[in-house]
Amino acid sequence: MTLTVTTCAVAGSSAFGAKPGGARRSRMERSLQWRDGRFENPQPLQNDVWRAVRDLAGASEHRRPGGPVPTAPLDASSFQRPPATGLRVTWLGHSTLLVELDGRRVLVDPVWGERASPFSWVGPHRFHSPVLPLEQVPAIDAVVISHDHFDHLDMRTLQAMKGWKTTFVVPLGVGAHLERWGVPAANVIELDWWERTRLGDLEIVATPARHASGRSLFSGRNGTLWAGFALLAPAHRVYYSGDTGLFPGLADIGARLGPFDVAMIEVGAYGRAWPDWHLGPEQAVLASQMVRAEVLLPVHWGLFNLAYHGWTEPAERVLVAAEKAGVTVTVPRPGQSIEPAALPPLTRWWPDVPWRTAEVDPIVATRMGPVRVGVDATTP
């Protein structure tokens, strides 16, 4: 057993990244989110290990697709034509998105790797191949990374991108991983919650999230920060949740930075044993209202098997919840581009397989208190 653990640790050592130190560590320790040697959420995360073990026995038989995932053909030359409305979002699968707004391009949580894992031979395997080869991605103004979990930060992808003439915007501490993999320190900007950076006329704001971080069992959890992002351009505003559970601060994001033309919000990998780690479909719809989004684009589903629910269930439940709440939702195919101001008709491109409803398997965050929706801005 000891030999197996040691072998795995050595095999994945580079993918585990680097532990922040020096001036980077000192800056982390000055954060309001830093407590007793690590980052903490204002509302702690609930974990029910025994329930997780029990629920595994009732896991869906449809956690992986039974056949090829219907992806949309994506021609790299399409990015040479600017969006007619000034804002276009292309979903590349899971939480990887290419956002074009007011002449700028932002790549979100780029993951081109085969597995959400430090190893090439074990771990969640993608349901479909990348819809756009990495070498065909157009010139990018900024790459934003929400946190250092393997389904959001992929070593091989970042190593392939290390020579890009772009800026990498990440939460506190995450830059240590990038630098270990060859990304020049001068190209990395680390932000605490509510901090901003400006790239020409595009402002990028790191927003609070309720989640966790960590890439290694040996270095402890929450050694780097996690965040969402607001992209503020002259004519359009976009919100990306990163990974998050429901928390009251979502209303503050909407008040201070919204309204948003579109919110890309995570909807998958939920479970009743970990109700605060991820939103789940119904709470994702509520979160879109809290941040004052005109359109909800669900992400963090359809690429990796990371929970017990069926792979299509997040989309099915989002549609039901959005209709009840009167929320406009768009569910593009992987590889499909949408313009929030000119949405295509909603089509159910995924197969019809059994799924559990919110009534059967509700996801309810803890320590929430009253929920504020549609509040007015209080801070510029």
TrEMBL record:
<protein>
    <submittedName>
        <fullName>MBL fold metallo-hydrolase</fullName>
    </submittedName>
</protein>
<feature type="domain" description="Metallo-beta-lactamase">
    <location>
        <begin position="93"/>
        <end position="300"/>
    </location>
</feature>
<dbReference type="InterPro" id="IPR036866">
    <property type="entry name" value="RibonucZ/Hydroxyglut_hydro"/>
</dbReference>
<dbReference type="Pfam" id="PF12706">
    <property type="entry name" value="Lactamase_B_2"/>
</dbReference>
<feature type="region of interest" description="Disordered">
    <location>
        <begin position="59"/>
        <end position="79"/>
    </location>
</feature>
<dbReference type="InterPro" id="IPR001279">
    <property type="entry name" value="Metallo-B-lactamas"/>
</dbReference>
